[in-house]
Amino acid sequence: MAHPVASRGSAVVRRSRAARLTYAFGVSLPGPVAAGAAGLVAVELLVLMAWGADTRAQAGAGSALRVGADLWLLAHGASLRLPAGAVHFHPLGLVVMPLLVAASAGYRLAAARAEQHSLLQRAMAGRLRLPIRPGATLAAGAVRPTGAKAAASAPSRVSRRAAALDVVAVVVAQTALVLAVCLAASAPAARPAVGSAVAGAIVLSGLGATAGVLAGHRRVRSAWRLVPAVLRVPLAAGCAATAALAAVGALGLSVLLIVRAGSVAAAANGLGPGVVGGFGLFAGQVAVLPNLVVWGVCYALGVGFAAGPELTLTPTTAAPSSLPDLPVLRLLPTAPLPGWAWLVLAVAPLAAGVALALTVRRGSPGAAFGGRLSMVCAGTVVCTLLVGLLAAVSGGGIGAGVAARLGPASGWAMLATFVEVGMAGALVTSVAELVRRR
């Protein structure tokens, strides 16, 4: 049986630890809340500028503020329920905003905590009168002289619990702010879906905060090295293949922008948005461009994407005449591709296969041919999952009209990616092995 004095002492220690943890968590909350509120204010200011410059607008400032809040919620993954139908289409250019806000907040928290830890170490070293020369720091029981650059680049020794606390603080702050805006912006004209908004806020803020905290503690490389090589190589190869697909899609979209710039400009001028409205229209189209890049990847893989409730646009079909009033959608193909153009589309899976095989070869220099093929297959699975995720988040629908169904089907995109990129990666790996043996 434990001594009563010892039991009371351990209870006091547990309470003091809980109090310190609660205090540290509470101190960490204002920064992420301020960062999220700054993003909301920026969106609201843009919407208010467009509303104030539009002389034809009949709605009041309150309606304009609700529109800005709805756009901010769409960036966090929320769906909107309108009288004319639901809006569950999320421009990926807007989705980047909460990721950057969470990463910035996490980085600031981690950098501040690392600085406090460094100051505490120096204070303890001074109190204990340890023989530390000027320009040296205490690390792992040894005195190592460091300069300003080395001190700035050295990873901090803050505990994992403190780093996890920073991530949780950012996630809680961003999610609470999104929930509050959801409840405040709900109106009969547009009701945000609380479930999708909270889920999107948790995922986006969690990813951004984790990246920011690791960068703030300068632990990105060490965290990546903790992953076993048998998983690290396929993960890097899959990400490289996905990046190659996205690069080919962005290149194709850039060529279309150059070729069809006249039709896009004519469609924009036909809307008569004015100066400020034209800026808002331009910003909206830029926010949609990443979605079009993903659609272009699926188009190059042959599965295409939905361009309306009844039509899936593939290399053998043409875009419908009725499209949403977004000029950038005039980039969609107006006729089926000729036979020779299929060779151009083959560049996308071939480039992804080359990136996949080269990354595997660079990451496993001494592996046998069978081991490299297995890593290529594992990297293909990673690339397949990433393309399926991008296809799922890039699509959606707006209302119940011509834009009720937009974007690729993630299942077909995953199947095409697995077959085409996997075959290309295996082919490049086999050719490289034959060249090496000669």
UniProtKB/TrEMBL annotation:
Lineage: Bacteria, Bacillati, Actinomycetota, Actinomycetes, Frankiales
Signal peptide (from-to): none
A Pfam short name: DUF6350
Record keywords: Membrane, Transmembrane, Transmembrane helix
Organism listed in the record: Pseudofrankia inefficax (strain DSM 45817 / CECT 9037 / DDB 130130 / EuI1c)
Domain of life according to the entry: Bacteria
Record-annotated membrane-spanning stretches: 21-43, 89-110, 163-187, 193-214, 235-258, 264-282, 289-307, 339-360, 372-392, 412-435
Tagged with keyword Transmembrane helix: yes
Protein name per UniProt: Integral membrane protein
